[in-house]
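step: validate -> pass
step: tokenize input -> pass
step: predict -> running
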Amino acid sequence: MTALQKIALGYAVVLFGAASLNYIPGLTDEAGLAFGIFALDIFDDALHVASGLWALAAAFISHKAARIFALVFGALYLGDGVFGFFTGYGYLDLGIFTNGWAGLSFTLFRVLANLPHIALGGFALFAGLRFDRR
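step: predict -> pass
step: emit ->
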């Protein structure tokens, strides 16, 4: 298993963990916000499970599959995080379509709410480019 395949496997674990956040007692507050920062709905859970399954499959198929996962996933999630930072909602979970435009905001809350997708997407994109060779 190459380093990139191990990274894809790590992404599967992280994404399945993200999908489970709403179902672990104590991680959401009375308003339904995970860690008091962001709300996860069925669309988010479906996105995280589908992405986790994709990462898991890529990790076990081949180095090339893991690289494709890292590049495509990285670009999509990084873009979603940046888009969410500027608009208030991302596009991967259809939030921008179901909630509309929330306007530009430079609050700590907005940064923290979009940081997971920015970090996950950015690292995946970096890994896909950096670990091109076995």
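step: describe -> The chain is about 65% helix and 5% strand.
step: cleanup -> pass
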